[in-house]
Amino acid sequence: MLAFQLGETVMMKSKDNLNSAEVPHRYSRQVLFAGIGAEGQVSLSASSVALVGCGALGTFQASLLVRAGVGSVRVIDRDFVEESNLQRQILFDERDVQELLPKAVAAERKLKLVNSRVKVEGVVDDVNASTIDRLLAGVDLILDATDNFDVRFLLNDYSVKHGIPWVYGACVGAEGLTFFILPGETPCLRCVFENAPAAGLSPTCDTAGVIGPVVGCVASLQVAEALKILTGHRALVNRRITRIDLWGNRLACVDLPPRNQDCPCCGRREFIYLDGAMGSEATTLCGRNSIQINRRDGAKLDLAALASRLAPLAKLEGNRFLLKIALDEYQLTVFPDGRAVVSGTTDPGVAKSLYARYVGA
Q1: Which sequence positions are flagged as catalytic?
Q2: On the chain, which terminus has fewer CB atoms closer than 10 Å, C or N?
Q3: In this predicted structure, which of 77-86, 287-296, 342-351 has the lowest mean pLDDT?
Q4: Which residue has the higher pLDDT, 246 or 22?
């Protein structure tokens, strides 16, 4: 490939002079990379990606995608910026906290300053069975930046049903993992995790902490795989699970399990999360400034184990019937059947976020 600068653009021509494309000079270093080139850059500019979640992983992913010149980036998040986010969520600053900005709004503002050529759409909404078709309509690829398995299983249903690839990612503490789901080619999420981890027992960033570097590593791996797909290099997509432990100095790729022909999602094509038969449901309690969270999956909670995990983080009181968790202006009252009443808000998104952070999903 030959490259030369032309003012604000870079012209890349193939040796046989059959294919050429003019691209903005800002992408010149990326175009020089043989894996992308001018044709790949043009493909990126014509692509549309949805980020579900704009927390730690989502802010890294969004920044990388917008800087790479992906044509349309839709950032979907139901939460707002808090001071504790600033340690690892790279798009936000103290002014966003002071202005109580929703994360999607703050992200859109920052990303448009990074690259005005990209269509950035910040959407303040909750991804659930009734909204997912509207929120993900028209995208070529989905990036997971969520904090709970309810939404991930929902994304998996949507992905498999519509044949849209998505990239799973998760991190907590100094550890993280990621893998790509290509409908019809690789195992889906339910082939890998038949069910969500037991409610109340899995660590989260709010209970076990997280360091910024592991977030950057996982998000970078996710975006690297996304770029392969969006530039037409499907065969190069990593079809293994990548696991990292930055504190323990470990990096490994392990094989995904084989596709389960009897998988309820990609095998039998039963989309129970998409149909609203599974996951959590939020109901406003009239006159109480509270939201009730009901679990549809029938998962039970070990209140003693949950209390032990949360004891360093919150004021607790309870008995064998319930556990009350005091969190600044909010209070969660959790029951053994997985149900919880979140007091201090009438916003279902806030209530579901608090439940996911401290109880799990």
Answers
A1: 205
A2: N
A3: 287-296
A4: 246
